């Protein structure tokens, strides 16, 4: 109920009371009179009735005056004081309550102001100490940052959810978006940024697989573990990634706790594109050299031995054999020359095969097959002492692929695994019964590109097998009716030193202690997470007009990121957009954007994908978000992207906080919240201001019991403004 | 007594020696230079023994060998694999897909002839 209605009701009640009193007095007097007196008075009363009505009506004015004063002093003043106190407490400590209302209320307001003063000085004191502490941390961070910037490798630190906490400039350079479209037109947005998701850069499964391997090693009692894999960066470079876990403070205490003690991970990236190419060339050279030499020698030896064995062969036959010997000898020398010159600049191959227990590989493959293909697996004889030198991720992909084809094309209902050592080789068998394969089938399976369990790989089974210097073939064991694929891989020695001798957790520097690590939950549980813990992209658009359906277009998008309750002013998105239509003079006046400024800018279908990447995995925030979103939605198809993340609207949130206020314009809210309006009417300026406002709203919402994203969205929907159709 | 020998190899210089040696032993020789031709020759020529190179165009020796072993009618055909690939792992595979012998280039012709005669039961 608004104050106005409240007042009207009170006034009506008071007036009704006065009228009722007068009427009651008249009735009482009338009841007391005798019949004659009544007869005498009745005409009199009728005659003077208009005067009575007039007096009753006139009584309304003084009544209203008195009531208004009372209302202001005793109802409105305390309520305003409460509002002021709330602003002081939650939003703007510098705000002071004006002195108004009754003497008592004024004294109360003075006390509130004094408390506020005391609070401010206390806060300053605390802030000073926090600042000092922060400066020390800052120094340490700077030291770490300086250290990282000196590194030749790219380094990215992530929390367990894959959000980036720290990175160096080299990582930013390496992980730029492919140089076309929006990236080339704008600043070449890097995919790396604080609070952004690493999964926008690397395949989620690859990271999770590496983490699982680290878990496994820790579970087996290793004090520290790391994992490495090779993958492609978004722009196509081959990157070797080494992952080391970041363990929480409690991790050192016990082996059992250590497994769950992983709070994040460090990725060290190395661009190995050139080295791999060199490695491939070297492998190829070596192969042509050895196999070519063998073939030529074979011909020479056979010819020589034939001549020796048949001394009385005719001249024609003898000349032919001698010709062969000469020809092959020349071919051999030429091959050696060529190899010598090409081999000089080839480097050692860097494809990282890591040592792994065969049994662990099989266990991982079984987990994957059971989870992805929903197919039961069993173990036959598995030699626990067999160690292999493998790229476990790709090999597991290969096994999963084989099994998925067996299941899809032959309806296999169970898969078993076997592992044995055979001389210098390990035989890894994928076994089933009741579906013999033709050689055509096994041939095509090896050369088709792999696609299994919803995951496609650019490699073929054959390539993966070759990468491991392995061989694969299909065999039938008739006595037991078993069919199997046998993968023969060279054995390797267990190399304990690879990880068990790595430095322990204790040796990690102290400044590893980032607050961002304490972010529980994953994206699906986003709604249950507190507002203060989420990452946001606050954005604003400038447009040619207000009617997207009538052909108005976006001319500028500005956005800024909020991570852990901090507005990151250096992580911004700012892009002018060619609207492919004229700017009206009115729009130019408001936005300060002239038509000429837009002519060489990218169009919206190029800009939106870059913006989509910028806000990956964050909650969107905008003032009057419905307006901006309508513009974005209309362009989604053309740009081939969707904005599906949750959205918060500062206009609706303001209405949640102050339902009795009329104005929820951005300027008005900013003023109430003590936010300085800067750079208004540029998309980025408005986005920053919206962000500042939003940050100050979070504690005010918490006062009303709105703490999580889900609660904020629910409350927004209930406000009056949400029902207005834009 | 002469047997039928199929030589499948795309290296002409080794084929010359192999052909000469086999003919000297009194065998009937047919030469092909790729995997598919080898399979066709098995069908038409009906060899008693094949000298089968692993690295051939169109179809590898492994695949030819596996295809021959799939057909029971050809179960008696002896297969000697010849290869410039000499690692254990390839020998392993050759024997697994059904070869009777795996000979790595360069080889001793005396040993090869002995092996062939042994497989032919002569």
Task: Walk me through the structure.
- The complex is a heterodimer of chains A (726) and B (122).
- Chain A has helices spanning 3-32, 35-90, 103-150, 169-174, 181-185, 204-219, 255-260, 273-309, 315-343, 358-372, 392-410, 439-447, 461-467, 585-591, 595-598, 604-614, 625-639, 650-657, 666-673, 683-703, 709-718; strands at residues 154-159, 164-167, 227-232, 238-247, 262-271, 354-357, 377-382, 387-390, 415-422, 425-433, 449-452, 455-460, 471-477, 482-492, 536-543, 554-563, 566-576, 619-622, 647-649.
- Chain A has 726 residues and is of the alpha+beta class.
- Chain A folds into five domains: 1-142, no CATH class; 151-272, PAS domain (Beta-Lactamase, 2-Layer Sandwich); 276-343, Helix Hairpins; 354-496, Histidine kinase-like ATPase, C-terminal domain (Heat Shock Protein 90, 2-Layer Sandwich); 527-723, Ribonuclease H-like superfamily/Ribonuclease H (Nucleotidyltransferase, domain 5).
- In chain A, a hairpin with a 5-residue loop joins strand 3 and strand 4.
- The longest helix of chain A has 56 residues, at 35-90.
- Mean pLDDT of chain A is 80; it is low at 181-187, 250-259, 345-350 and 495-522.
- Chain B is an alpha/beta fold.
- Chain B has one domain (4-119): Rossmann fold, CATH 3.40.50.2300.
- Chain B has five helices and five strands; from the N terminus they run βαβαβαβαβα.
- Chain B has a five-stranded parallel β-sheet with strand order 2-1-3-4-5, with helices on both faces.
- Chain B is globular, with a radius of gyration of 13 Å.
- At the A-B interface, helix 8, helix 9, helix 12, strand 13 and strand 14 of A face helix 1, helix 3 and helix 4 of B.
């Amino acid at each position: 109920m608004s104050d106005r209605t409240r007042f009207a009701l009170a006034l009506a009640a008071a007036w009704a009371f006065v009228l009722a009193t007068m009427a009651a007095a008249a009735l009482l007097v009338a009841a007391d009179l005798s019949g004659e007196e009544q007869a005498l008075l009745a005409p009199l009363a009728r005659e003077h009735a208009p005067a009575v009505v007039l007096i009753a009506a006139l009584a309304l004015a003084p009544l209203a005056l008195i009531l208004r004063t009372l209302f202001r002093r005793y109802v409105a003043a305390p309520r305003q004081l409460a509002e002021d106190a709330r602003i002081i407490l939650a939003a703007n400590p510098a705000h002071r309550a004006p002195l108004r209302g009754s003497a008592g209320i004024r004294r109360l307001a003075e006390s509130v102001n004094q408390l506020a003063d005391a609070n401010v000085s206390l806060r300053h004191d605390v802030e000073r100490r926090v600042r000092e502490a922060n400066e020390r941390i800052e120094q340490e961070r700077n030291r770490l940052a300086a250290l990282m910037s000196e590194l030749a490798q790219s380094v990215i630190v992530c929390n367990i959810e894959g959000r980036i906490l720290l990175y160096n400039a080299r990582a930013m350079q390496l992980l730029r978006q492919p140089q076309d479209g929006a990236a080339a037109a704008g600043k070449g947005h890097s995919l790396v940024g604080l609070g952004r998701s690493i999964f926008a850069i690397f395949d989620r499964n690859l990271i999770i697989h590496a983490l699982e391997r680290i878990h496994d090693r820790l579970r087996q009692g290793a004090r520290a573990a790391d994992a490495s894999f090779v993958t492609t960066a978004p722009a196509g470079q081959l990157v070797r990634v080494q992952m080391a876990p970041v363990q929480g403070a409690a991790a050192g205490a016990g082996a059992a706790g250590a497994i769950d003690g992983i709070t994040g991970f460090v990725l060290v990236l190395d661009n190995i594109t050139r080295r791999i190419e060199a490695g491939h060339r070297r492998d190829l050279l070596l192969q042509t050299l050895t196999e070519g030499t063998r073939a030529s020698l074979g011909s020479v030896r056979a010819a020589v031995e034939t001549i020796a064995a048949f001394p009385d062969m005719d001249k024609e036959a003898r000349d032919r054999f001698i010709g062969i010997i000469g020809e092959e000898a020349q071919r051999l020398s030429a091959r050696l020359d060529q190899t010598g010159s090409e081999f000089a600049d080839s480097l050692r191959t860097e494809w990282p095969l890591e040592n792994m227990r065969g049994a662990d590989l099989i266990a991982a493959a079984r987990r994957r097959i059971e989870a992805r293909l929903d197919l039961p697996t069993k173990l036959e004889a598995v030699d626990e002492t067999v160690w292999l030198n493998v790229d476990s991720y790709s090999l597991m992909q290969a096994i999963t692929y084989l099994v998925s084809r067996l299941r899809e094309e032959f309806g296999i209902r169970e898969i078993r695994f076997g592992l044995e050592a055979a001389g210098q080789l390990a035989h890894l068998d994928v076994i089933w019964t009741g579906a013999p394969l033709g050689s055509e089938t096994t041939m095509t399976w090896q050369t088709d590109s792999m696609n299994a369990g919803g995951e496609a790989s650019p490699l073929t089974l054959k390539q993966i097998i070759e990468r491991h210097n392995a061989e694969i073939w299909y065999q039938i064991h008739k006595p037991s009716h078993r069919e199997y694929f046998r993968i023969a891989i060279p054995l390797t020695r267990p190399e304990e030193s690879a990880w068990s001798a790595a430095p322990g957790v204790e040796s990690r520097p102290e400044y590893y202690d980032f607050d961002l690590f304490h972010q529980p939950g994953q994206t699906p549980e986003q709604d249950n997470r507190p507002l203060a813990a989420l990452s946001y992209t606050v954005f604003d658009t400038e447009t040619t007009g207000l009617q997207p359906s009538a052909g108005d277009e976006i001319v500028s998008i500005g956005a800024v990121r909020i991570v852990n309750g901090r507005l990151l002013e250096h992580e911004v998105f700012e892009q002018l957009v060619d609207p492919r239509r004229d700017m009206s003079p009115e729009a130019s006046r408001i936005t300060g954007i002239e038509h000429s400024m837009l002519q060489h800018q990218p169009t919206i279908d190029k800009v939106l994908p870059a913006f989509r990447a910028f806000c990956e995995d964050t909650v969107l925030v905008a003032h009057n978000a419905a307006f901006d979103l309508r513009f974005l939605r209309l362009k989604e198809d053309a740009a081939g992207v969707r904005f599906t993340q949750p959205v918060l609207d500062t206009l609706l949130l303001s209405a949640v906080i102050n339902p009795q206020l009329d104005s929820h314009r951005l300027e008005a809210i900013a003023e109430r919240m003590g936010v300085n309006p800067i750079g208004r009417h540029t998309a980025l300026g408005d986005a920053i201001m919206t962000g500042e406002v939003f940050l100050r709203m979070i504690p005010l919402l918490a006062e009303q019991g709105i703490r999580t994203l889900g609660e904020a969205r629910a409350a927004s929907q209930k406000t009056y403004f949400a029902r207005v159709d834009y | 007594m002469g047997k039928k020998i199929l030589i499948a190899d795309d290296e002409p210089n080794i084929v010359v020696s192999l052909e000469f040696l086999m003919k000297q032993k009194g065998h009937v020789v047919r030469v092909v230079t790729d995997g598919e031709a080898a399979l066709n020759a098995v069908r038409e020529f009906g060899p008693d023994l094949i000298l089968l190179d692993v690295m051939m165009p169109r179809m590898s020796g492994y695949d030819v060998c596996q295809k021959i072993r799939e057909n029971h009618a050809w179960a008696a055909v002896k297969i000697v694999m010849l290869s410039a690939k000499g690692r254990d792992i390839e020998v392993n595979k050759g024997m697994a897909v059904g070869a009777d012998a795996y000979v790595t280039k360069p080889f001793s012709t005396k040993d090869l002839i002995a092996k062939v005669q042994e497989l032919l039961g002569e």
